[in-house]
Amino acid sequence: MDERRFQEIIRFAMDKESRANQFYLSAAQVAKHSGAKELFLDLAKEEEAHRRLLENLDMEKVSRSRIEKVPDLMISDYLMEIEFKPNLSYAEILRVAMKMEERSLKLYEEMKEKNTDEEIKNLFTFLANEEAKHKFRLEKIYDEEVLK
Fold first, then answer.
1. Rg of the chain in Å (alpha carbons)
2. Please, what is the Cα angle at 27 between 22 and 30, to 5 degrees?
3. Handedness of CA 102, 48, 146, 137 (dihedral sign)
4. Which domains does the chain have, with CATH numbers?
5. At residue 1, does pLDDT exceed 70?
6. Structure-derived torsion over alpha carbons of residues 77, 24, 109, 66, reported in degrees to the nearest 10
7. How does pLDDT run across 52-94, given as a tens digit for each residue?
């Protein structure tokens, strides 16, 4: 893959991670319970860490990273999209977050499939795995705290 195309992909992924970070920071501001605030702040930190990883990309490190099999509860697959607003309930914020992670996961999986370069495929596999972890974490919380 040529360097210009590679840099475009990295900038795109960094922007996506920055937007996710901003979403979680906003969610933490409107969350009413300290546990919810902590969850969203933790997810914001993880998204920022992903952005920094992309900014200081070390393909050797990405290729050595361990890809975990992440369970998919598929809860977000059955939820409708809703727009984030400051007056949403905790359950609604979780829905928005799950759908956002679901879209990111699908996007990174599609980008992995569309690229032939093995390093780029490894990068998108890594990013998709990180989004799958977030999706699972949110779905598990939603299952335990909202659907119970």
1. 16
2. 130
3. positive
4. 3-145 (1.20.1260.10)
5. no
6. -110
7. 989 998 888 888 888 989 999 999 999 999 999 989 999 999 9
